[in-house]
Design brief:
- 4 copies of one chain form a homotetramer.
- By secondary structure, chain A is of the alpha+beta class.
- The first copy, chain A, has one domain: Chorismate synthase, AroC fold, CATH 3.60.150.
- In chain A, 29% of the residues lie in helices and 18% in strands.
- In chain A, the strands form 5 sheets. Chain A has a 5-stranded antiparallel sheet with strand order 9-8-10-14-11. A 4-stranded antiparallel sheet of chain A has the order 1-2-6-3, with helices on one face. In chain A, strands 7-15-16 form a 3-stranded antiparallel sheet, with no helix packed on it.
- In chain A, helix 1 crosses helix 5, helix 5 packs across helix 9 and helix 8 runs antiparallel to helix 9.
- Chain A is globular, with a radius of gyration of 23 Å.
- The relative contact order of chain A is 0.17.
- Chains in contact: A-B, A-C, A-D, B-C, B-D, C-D.
- At the C-D interface, strand 1, strand 7, helix 3, helix 4 and helix 8 of C face strand 1, strand 7, helix 3, helix 4 and helix 8 of D.
Chain lengths: 405, 405, 405, 405
């Protein structure tokens, strides 16, 4: 992240979530409805628990916008935690006179930040840690990502996602390249009326719902994987110039930073392990258009750390939520004894929601890469620079004789 | 990266490779032999091509060290490119009088930075791009990583790696957790006398060598995966506080930034997709030591974006090298016509070498996390701060009754 | 800024001002009253205009605190703009249906961001620029600085300031070193009940008030200089290791970034120009305490880019506010014609308030330097590391024979 | 610094000085002669000591250039320390077998990094500190600045400097605005054949030389001030959007980071203190050209933290060198006793050389601001973006009636 800076804040049961996004060009028209739609998408999904019924997230802009357009100044936004009303005494900001501290949380649960956080921050109350480690902290990331998505749309870029696998159930299990099976209007339909699990294969989705019911009945939880796709990117975002300037590196870092993500792939990803070189790389399709189009997109749109004009395809593995109705053994910070952890939340599957956070992080990284390449104090400057790049990306007309070297 | 800054430079056939690492504490005793050993390890491996026979990399320190100890000033180092002697006319730094530009490289090869880079940087000579995109640029990263490894060793941390899979051949194919099959002294043996493919399963390694021979005979190339393991880390490096402060995020970004890496996992990684929550998380082993030891390490040593005291386990997918002896279709930048690319390099498998770069990137990220948590202008300060943390990480003696909540 | 990150946001007449400060250790007890006091001090001062009567700034914490202590998570805070109620139609965030844009501001005023900002951000309405360029944007900086001041206090560091000169009137005009004339309890009195212009020389202050009255009567404005002093710093914050790691560099950058500041000095500052070397440097006072105390402090507490244990002394020049009651010639963006600018604000002197912002910026920079040297995930870790440093800073007992070399 | 990253390294008597500059566009033609000329200018000046006779600095490029043009990859360069041959045993990088450490430097000299550095880095040998704190560390900064100067020249920007005052002797002492007295071809003459002290007022320069002789005879040293001027900048570099995005802030930080600088001013600088608002701001000159030209340039080319199209004028105060032939009292680290410090270097005045470093730092900051606003992967992209900005900066033809509001 070089041109954009994002800081976010907020405890899960505190007053609210906040973000400041600095570095946007002036003149970007922002649709609040579009941002709220992404927030709603983050709350959607079969297998989610009660909290999602309490919150109805709406972005509130507090700085950086005037008459719906960015000013070039930092964009600030907040999302209220409605649940805060129920938690005021346990999550008081102030050490108010006569306040009695609530009973501390002392049981450290496996799969959470609890134990590492309590030791790092030297606290006897795990609530001091779990409140921020909660996935609710992704809310302002989704806002920032929604803004970046709108910026990218101005440069002709579209971002969408879907659930690819839940437990052992895969979308399009028989397809060689599942992506090619996704209906072309999937993204539009997904925005307007998402399916329960945001899986584009209806048969798989039905099976996934059944699996969630079964897992739920067993008091267990289930993970899966999602895919984020980005179409229309200019060629040459990111750079192979330095160890930390590659766009695949930035994408992997941002997506792995989402709670519960344990793996990230670009294109074939771990699929490259068992393939030979002749099956892995993407030749230019000489018969086609004036673009440098490829016959395949196994690289997932990134070569040499740069976008190559094909869709960027990022896949992430999401672990099952760690809070089970039949809880795992926890351990008491103070006594070292085993115990059964309290249940803070009861999602069975968060996969469709994690995918929306995935979209947001990918949008943030790519907006930053776009602005790093094209500068741009204003949106009109940005559009002019992108047009220049696209003009340079036209392929010379081949007469299809083979070139010699 | 917050406390350390690393910049590297160097073209593959230019005068040499350079790096500056800023932010090290004073008083770190550096073993040049240890750094050279890591450089040699990066050049080792069955399946590597001719270039590795030309270069015998040795680090040369130019700043930041005095009598073998860091001064707290930026550490600068370089590694000569011996091959530069053969390339002076094609890779001249200066626009010397009367110099004739060599014939440009115009065929853009799939799987390389060629096409995206030529468009991004608006050059008609792909050599301007491929020289820096080359994996030789990982040489100074390995130097910096070797220094960080030595810093981490002062804090009781050990980093090692192995090749996990090549093509379809897996190490310890029948093991539930392949890591547990690795001999305890593997790391020591691997440092002293690495096996041809750095695979700790001798049967698998034999099969891998045969596979390389077969792939080589077919004029093809082959990829695989490697695993980096880090033992002895203090609890609480990294943080769940912000979207970009998690140590798993930093690890994924740094490892995905290695040339040819297309996927990164922490712990079970994509293995979490098909498992239920009860099979994924790591309970504290109540019967054990005074550490908060776990019964399993499926999380790969990271919970809530922080180290949890268990070994950090990172796995990466490496694609087959894109330059095949039977080359893929390339395409001419200027004419748009198909052609057969020249062969710059002829490695069949770079997997064992990529794993050494993986070690280096992991070392860099974790040294930065260590210094971010513990500050430290000097090594003695660092050691004192680490001792404080370790003292805080002792588990209270449990009487093994279960705690209630 | 390496360990702390601060983003702020807010337009002068928008809904409010916001800030997020990331990187604080856990366990810092924050006094909201102390922060509000610094906000009130920023609004105080003879010569200020109407706006200061409208606003009564109060910090509102929205994240990062629980029961009055930091959690290690990002600290978020906001300050309402009460004036926003009067500006809702001119400063609407949303492009509400049927909203009519207010008449644009087109006259670009000298001494403001108006002209450069309108061209940079390509806007026809200068309000899009001036709202953020306003000194009201320093409000969240003062909040963040107040938090850093409290952090520094935990390490035994005290920050205070005073007005040194207004127009041609200097405090302690006859003193060789004005700083030595300031009463030892000035800082305490200034916190409790600041004088009208925060000048520690009562005679000068009386003359300054008269000067403000005269300037005001003339429809003009007046500038001056302030001094920030920091006592109790550990030796060795900042570093000469790199071009951008020196603490004097960071201080100068942060203070010059305050609106209206046009010059920054450390210690003697421009006073060094006309002095010889023998009059400029600070010898250790061999007769004194167990500290490495100096006979003088002409260096202003910084040698080699590091704190040297003496008080850090920073002085800044503040230009007269650019909005005069007898306005200067402005020029119309669209027609190029001269005009008389509207008067957005009518302060005659902002000097005492700028000094409070100066304290805040100095506190921010030094808190960052402290955390960079000492790391610290928690306040107890920080205090332990500072104690280590102080123990190392004890001077060996000299028997006052001269050392030979 | 947002788009460019610079790391430098090197001890004063170590093998050499190194720098890596990352973030340059591809296609910048670099004149090595121009860089060497700036290095020579840094070594020039009446009053310099012996070391300058030993070193004849030449840049050596090791990465990032091919046939004299940048590749978009990191630019690496080094400058040998010829003196290193005489210091190999005292400055050995390696802890070679049987090496005997030289006698440590234990006397901490006032005005140097000695004492603070020895405590910070916990060393008993002050050489470990002074080697990096030396002004020789500005050599790679001058290289990087020379490259940035050449980049800026491509955007129509010219940077030059002069000595403004030495001791009590001012250039153009009777002029209201000394800058207006400088001959228009000063910069050209200064590049080709600089005068002994780089002062554009011959009478003053003569007096300055006499003053240096007198100071030298007295065994003392002398400081002064220099001015850096930048002409031709586009309007709108830097930003008032955030506390750390203002270009005056970045300039002040970078210039204060030069060894021996104790004060920085933009435009009138501390001159604003004693002036009224009506005398400080710069009205647009309605009678003039199609540019938004000002009648005066008291702001020094920066309003609201942005360039306003007028020349940027930065002035810096340089303290007398701390190493005097009649040395000040030093103090022994180990015994606490007073002593007379050894004399490492014997410059009497470094002012003309500091001014060259000033040019370099200003060039670095402004190149970064340019690239932040205009992005640019290539020089042609950059030039196109600058042209767009210049086209937007044309002033509408005024008919000179006054605008009404």
């Amino acid at each position: 992240m070089r041109r954009l800076r994002l800081l976010t804040a907020g405890e899960s049961h505190g007053p609210g979530m906040t973000g400041i996004l600095e570095g946007l060009p002036a003149g970007l028209r922002i649709s609040t409805r579009g941002v709220d739609r992404d927030l709603a998408r983050r709350q959607h999904g079969y297998g989610s628990g009660r909290r999602m019924l309490i919150e109805r997230d709406r972005v509130e802009w507090t700085a950086g916008l005037r008459f719906g357009r960015t000013l070039g100044s930092p964009l600030a936004f907040s999302i209220l935690n409605r649940d805060w009303q129920n938690w005021r005494d346990r999550m008081s900001v102030e050490a108010a006179d006569g306040a009695r501290r609530p009973k501390p949380v002392t049981l450290a649960r496996p799969g959470h930040a609890d134990l590492a956080g309590a030791i790092k921050y030297d606290t006897g109350d795990i609530r001091d840690v779990l409140e921020r480690a909660s996935a609710r902290s992704t809310t302002p990331r989704v806002c920032a990502g929604a803004v970046c998505r709108q910026l990218l749309a101005n440069a002709g870029v579209r971002i969408w996602s879907f659930v690819d696998q839940l437990g052992t159930i895969r979308a399009f299990p028989d397809a060689e390249d599942p992506l090619t099976e996704v209906a072309p209007d999937w993204w539009r339909q997904d925005l307007a009326r998402p399916t329960p699990l945001r899986c584009p294969d209806p048969d798989a989705e039905t099976a996934m719902q059944a699996e969630i019911d079964a897992v739920s009945a067993a008091g267990d939880s289930i993970g899966g994987s999602f895919v984020v796709v980005v179409e229309g990117l200019p060629i040459g975002l990111g750079s192979s110039a330095e160890w930390d300037t590659r766009v695949d590196s930035a994408l992997a870092g941002a997506v792995m930073g989402i709670q519960a993500v344990k793996g990230v792939e670009i294109g074939l990803g771990f699929g490259v392990v068992s393939k030979r070189g002749s099956q892995v790389h993407d030749e230019v399709d000489s018969g086609r258009s004036s673009r440098w189009e490829r016959r395949t997109n196994r690289a997932g749109g990134v070569e040499g750390g740069m976008t190559n004009g094909e869709p960027v395809v990022v896949r992430a593995a999401v672990k099952p939520v760690a809070t089970l109705r039949k809880p795992l053994d926890a351990v008491d910070l103070h006594t070292g004894q085993r115990g059964r952890a309290h249940i803070e939340r009861s999602d069975v599957a968060i996969l469709p929601r994690a995918a929306i956070v995935g979209e947001a992080m990918v949008a943030l990284v790519l907006a930053d890469a776009l602005l790093t390449s094209f500068g741009a104090d204003t949106m009109s400057d940005l559009r002019a620079a992108v047009r220049r790049r696209r003009a340079r990306s036209v392929r010379p007309r081949a007469t299809d004789g083979a070139a010699s070297e």
